[in-house]
Amino acid sequence: MASRIRLEDRECPLSTTVAHVGEWWTLLILHDCFDGYTRFDQFQENLGISSSMLTTRLKALVGDRLLERRPYQTNPARHEYVLTDLGRSLRPVIVALAAWGNARLAPDQRSMILVDAATGEEVEPVVVDAATGRRLDDSEAFVYTSGPAAGRAMRTRYPRDVKERP
User: Fold this and answer.
1) Is residue 20 a contact partner of residue 35, using CB atoms and an 8 Å limit?
2) Engineering a disulfide at 83: which of 87, 93, 97, 137 sits with its beta carbon 3.0 to 4.6 angstroms away?
3) DSSP per residue over the chain, as a string?
4) pLDDT of the chain along its 166 residues, tens only?
């Protein structure tokens, strides 16, 4: 039997990302961090996660440099988990995932909505091209091409010249 390819060993950036944040507890812990939670007991109480699973996920988030573990008390030793710049850069991804989930619910079924902090008005997050402001939800208008580090399989799947796409 052939061994399975680990996601983080694949060339695709989506596979690499999923290897780091694809586990659902990870996304929920990060979501709590964006809401200001930093301490083990806060995560555990809010999420209802077992201490062993929380310990495992926090260690992975620190190892992936998405969170930083900092002491806040010496006797007994206690640590908090603070988002790094890399971790903070995931906020738009998590906001987009929540928005995708909410878009499939009737407005009266949503338990959480994103609002403008200044006005309190509900907002609709979308992913746009920074240069043009065009929405990226049109799969015909935006396609992948191989990047400079692409291997043979990636170059075959995503030709550099978009006119060569199947």
Assistant:
1) no
2) 87
3) -PPPPPGGGSS-HHHHHHHHH-SHHHHHHHHHHHTT--BHHHHHHHH---HHHHHHHHHHHHHTTSEEEEEEEETTEEEEEEE-HHHHTTHHHHHHHHHHHHHTS-GGG-S---B-TTT--B-----B-TTT--BTT-TTT------TT--HHHHHHS-SSGGG--
4) 344 444 445 677 887 787 777 788 999 999 999 999 999 999 999 999 999 999 999 999 999 999 999 999 999 999 999 999 999 999 999 999 999 999 999 989 999 999 999 999 999 999 999 999 999 987 788 888 888 888 888 888 888 887 776 6
> Six-digit token pair at 34?
């964006």
* Greatest Cα pair distance in the chain: 64
Q: What distance in Å separates the CA atoms of residue 62 and residue 85, rounded to the nearest whole number?
A: 12
- CA–CA separation, 34 and 28 (whole Å): 10
- Whether the CB-CB separation of 153 and 11 falls below 8 Å is answered with yes
Q: Tokens 């201490």 map to which residue? A: 51
Structure tokens belonging to residue 53: 């699973």
Euclidean distance between CA atoms 33 and 90, whole angstroms: 11
Nearest CA to 91 out of 33, 44, 132, 42 is that of 33
φ, ψ at 121 (rounded to 5°): -80, 140
